[in-house]
Amino acid sequence: MNAPGAGQSQAAETFVKKLLAHLDECDVDRLQQALPLFQPHCRIVVNTQPFASPAAFLQTWLQAVVATQHTLTSLDYHVIPGTATLVCNAACKVRFDESGRDKMGGDAVLPAPAARTQPRARRWGTYYGLSLQLILDERVLAGDPAAAIAALNYTLVFRPDDTLMSI
Fold this sequence. Notes:
21% of the residues lie in helices and 34% in strands. With 167 residues, the chain is α+β, with helices and mostly antiparallel strands. The protein has a single domain (6-102, 120-158), classed as Nuclear Transport Factor 2, Chain: A. A six-stranded mixed β-sheet has the order 2-1-6-5-4-3. It starts with 5 loop residues before the first helix and ends in a 9-residue tail after the last strand.
């Protein structure tokens, strides 16, 4: 028998995994599908760098961040009574493609050749530690992800010694 609130915990975990999957997306159109998850005036901070809007964040994420793989390791959330919001704290691991290629597979420094015959393999680095804090609309616990994110704080808390990345 499921404990009370088990469905809510599963809904919160599913939502966070969905957000992380969107951040791992390399296709422009599919990454833009993450935009409806954010409230229009959502507060977004990545490693102390604030973003003016969710669209600006996603555009920067697409253009300036190489391919990523996120893994959720733990999740804790608390409903704030009377506010219809919840605070969610997720501990994650993230690793970056260290092949020198951008999300589209093109060379990050050199212009793309005229014709690419096959996609190049990614070279995944060691996992970084990631702390992700979210303020979400309580509707997310009922499975409604539309405009659920009121605030997002994405902070790398551990940098492996053997990484090639400079963040």
